[in-house]
Amino acid sequence: MIIVMKKGADKEQLAEVKKQIRELGYKPHVIHGETRNVIGAVGDERGKSVLQAMESLPGVESVVPILKPYKLASREVKPEPSTVDLGGGVTVGGGQLVVMAGPCSVESEAQILETAHAVKAAGATVLRGGAFKPRTSPYSFQGMEEDGLKLLALAREATGLPIVTEVVNPRDVDLVARYADIMQVGARNIQNFALLKMLGQLDKPILLKRGMASTIQEFLMSAEYILAEGNRRVLLCERGIRTFETATRNTLDISAVPVLKEQTHLPIIIDPSHATGHASLVPSMCYAGVAAGCDGLIVEVHPCPEKAASDGPQSLRPAEFAAMMAKLREFAKVAGKEL
Amino acid sequence: MIIVMKKGADKEQLAEVKKQIRELGYKPHVIHGETRNVIGAVGDERGKSVLQAMESLPGVESVVPILKPYKLASREVKPEPSTVDLGGGVTVGGGQLVVMAGPCSVESEAQILETAHAVKAAGATVLRGGAFKPRTSPYSFQGMEEDGLKLLALAREATGLPIVTEVVNPRDVDLVARYADIMQVGARNIQNFALLKMLGQLDKPILLKRGMASTIQEFLMSAEYILAEGNRRVLLCERGIRTFETATRNTLDISAVPVLKEQTHLPIIIDPSHATGHASLVPSMCYAGVAAGCDGLIVEVHPCPEKAASDGPQSLRPAEFAAMMAKLREFAKVAGKEL
Amino acid sequence: MIIVMKKGADKEQLAEVKKQIRELGYKPHVIHGETRNVIGAVGDERGKSVLQAMESLPGVESVVPILKPYKLASREVKPEPSTVDLGGGVTVGGGQLVVMAGPCSVESEAQILETAHAVKAAGATVLRGGAFKPRTSPYSFQGMEEDGLKLLALAREATGLPIVTEVVNPRDVDLVARYADIMQVGARNIQNFALLKMLGQLDKPILLKRGMASTIQEFLMSAEYILAEGNRRVLLCERGIRTFETATRNTLDISAVPVLKEQTHLPIIIDPSHATGHASLVPSMCYAGVAAGCDGLIVEVHPCPEKAASDGPQSLRPAEFAAMMAKLREFAKVAGKEL
Amino acid sequence: MIIVMKKGADKEQLAEVKKQIRELGYKPHVIHGETRNVIGAVGDERGKSVLQAMESLPGVESVVPILKPYKLASREVKPEPSTVDLGGGVTVGGGQLVVMAGPCSVESEAQILETAHAVKAAGATVLRGGAFKPRTSPYSFQGMEEDGLKLLALAREATGLPIVTEVVNPRDVDLVARYADIMQVGARNIQNFALLKMLGQLDKPILLKRGMASTIQEFLMSAEYILAEGNRRVLLCERGIRTFETATRNTLDISAVPVLKEQTHLPIIIDPSHATGHASLVPSMCYAGVAAGCDGLIVEVHPCPEKAASDGPQSLRPAEFAAMMAKLREFAKVAGKEL
């Protein structure tokens, strides 16, 4: 932490800041500049927010954090990339490119089975499908809940694909965990810390979606909540951030892939469906994600998008998905990944 | 809902769109334009997301929603402003300007009592204080939990001020409701729909904070979740949105006040502390909020900000708060509010 | 400037960074932290971008600027607020609240004269009107150009109000300066440095509008371009920034007022018309701006907004403007300004 | 254009809106909805801003544009992709992937020649280099101006590479055009319409960079300014947009590539250097851009980034560039482009 003093701050103010730094268990180190003084506070950065509060002291202009606040998620603690076993022989974070595909919502047995078989045939290795749907409107379809989970389990039995599905309410963690191979945390719950802590105590991989307004640092802090509870199987999912652009539903922050690769050892998944909101934009964003170095994709596929209960406009038809997968295989190969 | 056809879409495509509109229970109405056709779908807009899915049909360029998706929150359903009784003789939404003040976190009996007496003496009519703290970092102070609630109750007893405090986890709703007069939903939980639904079944006023990336429409949709469950006592709180500007913690969206006043009957509270992140900016934003027409303010006050466990830099000292209140009284009078 | 070394950076890398700092004319000052080293570079910060380039050196994690890059605009150089004489007995930056009002575009003699008389009668002290219009579409009305300037001069003669009008092209600076009392730089030209430099050599007040995506620091750097050329009469105008919110045209960054008041001595004007884009939102934003401490307002007024050649939806009718001014007078008084 | 009436708007208000629509030369077409009426205005959409002004009429809730405001840039006017001859046998927009590379600023003969030879050897086909530099600070290096242009011409002579360089001031268009093969418009000048109009009258390809806060639609409208003047050789360059994320200098909007490919026939270039601001992130963003379907890249390369006069942190060293190009060749092949 660096404390920048105001130009013209006097000796007493400087002394007071140094005293407070010492009281908080840090060692002050003053750099006397030409126009103002700057004080480094040396020590273990736990209790950081308390140092930040020194901005309230007279003569202090600003307090600048130097260190990254996450630990377990960082490359500094674990330099080599983490690989996570997802079940069904699928591993993410190594040489395998994982493609998770399926409908936004589970709607019926026929729908989920048809989709599961289709995406498996095209090369997907995980089945996605929502049973608990967090919807902006209370009047929108909210998901089939446990019945949806049962249908997902049926589709897993039929295809052998492990399943990923979202859990929304801490109360439902046990229920969803009985069915799911991978537990998904949606973008809206990125700072639902009660949920994150419960998932940190689970023995299941967690697919954590970045919030629409989460900085990369905050995203890693949310992952840290899960890791700190003991669950080290966290997959980070970039799914678009909120910007001023309206041509797409969100803006896919593709550069988050190399930034995260530098900062964390956790595997990185790209969700081009929620990022763009339009099926026609999905294939090129899949290719871009893989070229950028991601470890996997999660893609919405629906047998009849114009009748989908949710997210129809961004869902690929099975034939479109298969065509995309064929081209993706070539890009994956150049990126050094196997599909 | 307006469906815009692509230039060059053929008759069969148009016929298919009309057919689908009818199947979904709407009446299609075609406007033949010079370069393309546009189809209005007339009917009750429930099931809106399904119409949106028609974007997937061949020949369709875009689907443009026309109606606002919220109902109970809207001025159309209830033209006159709602007033909400907060307890202790305090009513918000009418001629009274409500000022909620207190520390970010409850830290000790001495701290909360000192603050409560100070803010009451300066004219605050509600005491704020956090017992469950959703923090970005798992290593930061997470609040005193039930012990904090007990201290808040003690401060209420000592001062007569009703208390507002945040609930984070659906599991804790009953616990917090045993102590709080007003239940706060923080910005991070704006789309924690499980929490919103539980609060909708409660007989307590809810202070709902806008998410950092919530549009005003989404904000009202979150309020709609509470209203739709039967609880009509919702207070909307603008607390800054996330933008590219870094001089402030968030950007206070002051124009949300008149926008909300046009669209909804619910009372509007401004939180200048979280919006700006710096105590020196808080007083002028209080004045601006009142001049813009808000019904209340929620302000962080701490007896010793440089030692605060959370949000020190944005907390006013009691004397600063009292000075602000004196000037605020004058602005409130011009705005037609009593303080 | 603070250079943060990577954890594990070796002695040679540290030595190289120190060597480079010295070569650039700064004095390195190392703070040995628990997990990594941090180096302060002490010296005159001119040539700052060169220090930033040290991020390219092996072992360097990041380079953190400490000092504000503007000088002449800063409170540190000039602590007391600047007052600027606008002509016609109008001074901004002191006790007087300046209200600039008029149509977006000058459209005809009748239109500008009617508006000028109306806004003067309501208490405006400067007349605004666009003759050169930078429009997003090449097919939109681009302004009356010199004919428009002549009509503005006519309106000045008729009312005594000094006039503010936009200059878009460096080529037109002399032409516009022959007519205008105050030269306006629009938001789109905030980093049109050629234009800023020319205006810096002029003996006229400049109304500089913040860009839609300018940080406050960049805004001040653009002012610095004008100041550095010798023209000290710069008025800063906050007119909304671009965010994800679509209910308003832009988001009025009201907290920019106190932030700027802390950082600069230059007067601050609020433009609620471009910020909101809707006439019904303008009055409350005028009140908020004044309560926040601004020195003036610039407001669009048109005798017949539904027929305006540009920006009709955000223009007040003369009667609406007069009603707003009556209430504004009361808020101004509380804010310690005379209107 | 769709005019949405307020719920409860009366017959007279509806009649007035219809009358105004007819007066403006459009044909009104009313759809009577269940809760409100909606009016389509059929006709040539020129004069669009005037229709927008109808929002000011009593009883009107909102005015919703349906048609895209650009014409010449659109796929509807020209369905097949445009190819642009850049000189030196280089064509963009067809099967060739164009890589433009070189330093941010031209600094010396040795620097530009060394870089030009290096990037050519690695496979670049256009040399970039700035002679007029728009810098945020007036105290930063502003470019070598005409001397820089002369050095670029020298480098072209030495290597045969056509050169792209930025023009900032309309006054300098002729000067820059005497040296440059491709004229660059920087992000800060995206709405410098005086400059765009002059470039529209030039017989040279224009590389138009998207503004930091430009929507894709506004970006195309700026291109339309050039096209409407007669110059059809416009290259669109996505270089990152401004968002809340601070880990990167800007956020590369990679989905702009497929969106633009759907909407316009103009070639699309990606600038990963300005988008990310960090050299280590550039290669993966080059790969992502090509996988997403862009027609070219523009990349900053400097022989000694830590001593660069501008943008050092985002410049690749020649060896890093060569390594990137080797891998890029493989991705380009999969994307169906030749490098």
UniProtKB/TrEMBL annotation, chains A, B, C, D:
Its EC number is 2.5.1.54. GO terms for biological process: aromatic amino acid family biosynthetic process. Residues 89-329 form the DAHP synthetase I/KDSA domain. GO terms for molecular function: 3-deoxy-7-phosphoheptulonate synthase activity; aldehyde-lyase activity. InterPro entries: Aldolase_TIM, Class-I_DAHP_synthase, DAHP1/KDSA, DAHP_snth_FXD, DAHP_syn_2. It comes from the Bacteria. The keyword Transferase applies. Residues 1-68 form the DAHP synthase ferredoxin-like domain. The keyword Transferase applies. Gene3D superfamilies: Aldolase class I (3.20.20.70), Phospho-2-dehydro-3-deoxyheptonate aldolase, domain 1 (3.30.70.1140). Keywords: Transferase. It is an enzyme of class 2 (transferase). NCBIfam families: DAHP_synth_Bsub (TIGR01361), PRK08673.1 (NF006421), PRK12595.1 (NF009239). This is 3-deoxy-7-phosphoheptulonate synthase. It comes from Trichloromonas acetexigens. The lineage of its organism: Bacteria, Pseudomonadati, Thermodesulfobacteriota, Desulfuromonadia, Desulfuromonadales.
